[in-house]
Amino acid sequence: MAKITLQSLAHTYLDEPQSPEDFALQELNHDWNDGEAYALLGPSGCGKSTLLNIISGLLIPSHGRVLFDGKDVTDLPTADRNIAQVFQFPVVYDTMTVRENLAFPLRNRGLPASEVQDRVSRVGDMIGMTDVLDRRAAGLTADAKQKISLGRGMVRDDVNALLFDEPLTVIDPHMKWELRTQLKKLHRDFGHTMIYVTHDQTEALTFADKVVVMYDGRVVQMGTPVELFERPAHTFVGYFIGSPGMNVFDARIDGSKAQIAGTRFDLKTGYKLNGGSTKIGVRPENIRLGDHGLPARVKRVEDVGRHKIVRLDLGGQEVAAVAGEGAQIPSGGTHVQFVEGGVNVYENDWRVPPADGEPPLEQNTKDAA
């Protein structure tokens, strides 16, 4: 295992970049702690696969350095970094059996036959392929082949890091849950440094100790799932995390007072702002319907089984609110209230903390008055 350090790292595919927009990866300075599990989360084209390929050595960055435990590995090839990488689509040896595929990286390192057999049996059971260990890979389905790729990454215990680039794309939904569970167990048992690239927030939030959210070539927040959900550092994080995502309102803010769509209300705490564009973000789970607050109109209700998603119009903006399955939803006009402690203030799309500080996250969601 290794601590991975990115120093002033940036990358462009152009020979002569003229502006920040010419960089696929904006400048990064981050530490990935030894033994932690990270998820790189973001939409297609945000730079997450570029970053993973730089860490693995498949791509040399145009700027900055990559260090493993303080050693500069920026120009080292993948083979010299002692990492295991699993790609989006399966990479297996079709002429070999499943057992031979899993054993290949171990035999290359000269491990004793008994240890190879033990590890292969253990990983074969972990990925649910014990019954087909002696079948040739050529005759297997795409998701079975990807399980072999995952197993080949997990069979070694001497790697500096395990890197996964959207590895569950071709796996059926039921097996995705099982493999994520097995990956988490592997991490608990062996403490590998793991970096898992995905565009699926469920995969990221259920797999990782910390999630690294990327947007437009830069890291906009690194945090725990609770931090990303309750205190998104950027409006994009609020929008991207959650289903539905965070409601973001254009707002005028003066100290502890705010105005949305012509209605003023009290934020309960003050904010120090610098004259930029201000917005307020509120999770659908932190919106209540009632007879006072901001006037709104119910447009439709979506019953998703465990709760209802209420779509409202507030001053011309569509707003989502989450209500209990048994809640009575008014038709037509109503009002929305924000749960105390469930409001985030943004200036130029970046979160501004309350001027007088904020309580621990677990104490930050009281019921609305």
TrEMBL record:
- GO molecular function term, any single one: ABC-type ferric iron transporter activity
> Which InterPro entries would you find in this protein's record?
AAA+_ATPase, ABC_transporter-like_ATP-bd, ABC_transpr_FbpC, ABC_transpr_MalK/UgpC-like, Mo/tungstate-bd_C_term_dom, NA-bd_OB-fold, P-loop_NTPase, Transp-assoc_OB_typ2
User: Which Pfam families does UniProt cross-reference here?
Assistant: ABC_tran (PF00005), TOBE_2 (PF08402)
Please give the GO cellular component terms listed in this UniProt entry.
ATP-binding cassette (ABC) transporter complex, substrate-binding subunit-containing
Which keywords fit this entry according to its UniProt record?
ATP-binding, Cell membrane, Membrane, Nucleotide-binding, Transport
Which residues does the UniProt record annotate as the domain ABC transporter?
A: 4-241
Q: Does the keyword Membrane apply?
A: yes
Presence of the UniProt keyword Metal-binding in the record = no
- PANTHER family per the UniProt record, alphabetical: ABC TRANSPORTER ATP-BINDING PROTEIN (PTHR43875:SF14), MALTODEXTRIN IMPORT ATP-BINDING PROTEIN MSMX (PTHR43875)
What family, per the record? Belongs to the ABC transporter superfamily.
This protein's name: Carbohydrate ABC transporter ATP-binding protein, CUT1 family (TC 3.A.1.1.-)
